[in-house]
Specification:
Arc Repressor Mutant, subunit A, Rossmann fold, 7-stranded parallel β-sheet, 3-stranded antiparallel β-sheet, 43% helix, disordered N terminus, transcription, carbohydrate binding, WH-like_DNA-bd_sf
């Protein structure tokens, strides 16, 4: 046991000033020494307590004081611009395998800049987790397109388009081009859908689904091991499908309680799948097929989409969420108000 360094340790008060200016040199040296033992040398609180002749509870208070006073600062140097605290809180609140929340500085940036950062983060994750044995599905979305533009390396594996293309989109944004970009990097087989996202009626939809190329792609849905999708909110400018419908159909679906959309599949605020007439005139993976994918990475960001992200996470379909602080903060408030079932 060490003999009373820096004065009488037994006389140490855990109520010392919260500022370093209020601590004497001997107090500061004592706190720094204890903190060094714990953080640098990896000693346990019990070992430190034995060395200094105090209780382990007093060691815990000393470590708290060292942090609170600024004498000791714990910093994390992550290889990406991620807010560690928010990421951990969102992951825990919704029982996800992983959550990546862009750092708070992005809240002041234009939406297209945030979208590019979300895409880059998703690309980095996909590059790390995809294996040659995987079958990867991609939905159409601007954020998913941004991800594909940022991918630099990927194992050779099949890439499957999950839904058709919104009419009026330029070629660079079409999901057919998105799939082509990824397969040009990976060298794997491409399964595109050469058809529109929303069709005029059920008969036309069924006719297109029977076409050989589209039927082959739909046949791959049951083989998917990973999927990257975007979460849309059922409001103007926040959902590809919403923007593709006429006003009457938008209002009818909203009246049914639609809150969120993923790959043309709708969810209410509780995360339940909505069965509407829309399901019969879209070229897209079914809700059941999407739910069966073992690993679903969802991209959903910006404050207007917070309620939609909350709804989709409650469905239990998503394993990994990539978002920003602007969505994460209200998302945590929604989870606190109505805790999700994990």
């Amino acid at each position: 046991m060490l003999r009373q360094p820096f004065g009488q340790i037994s006389g140490y008060s855990a109520q010392m000033s919260a500022s370093r200016k209020g601590a004497s040199l001997s107090e500061a040296m004592l706190l720094a020494t204890v903190a060094r033992r714990f953080y640098v040398q990896g000693r346990s609180k019990l070992e430190i307590a034995d060395e200094f002749g105090v209780s382990r509870f007093k060691v815990a208070r000393m470590l708290d004081t060292a942090r609170d006073s600024g004498l000791v600062r714990v910093e994390f140097s992550l290889p990406a611009p991620v807010d560690l605290a928010l990421s951990d809180e969102v992951r825990s609140a919704y029982g996800l395998q992983q959550a990546l929340v862009l750092e708070r500085s992005t809240e002041r940036e234009p939406r297209e800049v945030v979208r590019a950062k979300i895409g880059t983060l998703a690309a980095r994750l996909l590059e790390e987790i995809v294996r040659p044995s995987d079958v990867v599905g991609l939905s159409w979305a601007r954020s998913v397109n941004a991800m594909t533009e940022a991918i630099r390396a990927l194992p050779r594996c099949p890439i499957v388009q999950l839904c058709g293309v919104q009419a009026g989109m330029d070629m660079r944004g079409r999901s057919v081009e998105t799939v082509s970009r990824v397969t040009s990097v990976s060298g794997g087989d491409a399964y595109p859908i050469f058809g529109p996202l929303v069709l005029p009626d059920r008969r036309t939809t069924e006719t297109l689904r029977r076409q050989p190329g589209i039927a082959e792609t739909f046949g791959q849905f049951r083989n998917l091991t990973k999927a990257v999708v975007s979460i849309g909110a059922w409001q103007p400018g926040e959902s590809t499908v919403y923007d593709a419908l006429d006003e009457a159909e938008r209002a009818a679906i909203a009246a049914r309680g639609a809150t969120a959309e993923v790959a043309a599949r709708l969810f209410d605020a509780s995360g339940n799948a909505l069965s509407t007439g829309l399901a019969h005139h879209v070229l897209a993976i079914s809700h059941e097929e999407l739910t069966a994918v073992p690993e679903v990475i969802a991209l959903g960001y910006s404050r207007p989409k917070a309620a939609a992200v909350d709804a989709v996470l409650r469905s239990g379909m998503v394993t990994t969420l990539i978002t920003d602080a602007a969505a994460a903060v209200p998302l945590l408030a929604l989870a606190a108000k109505n805790p999700p079932h994990k």
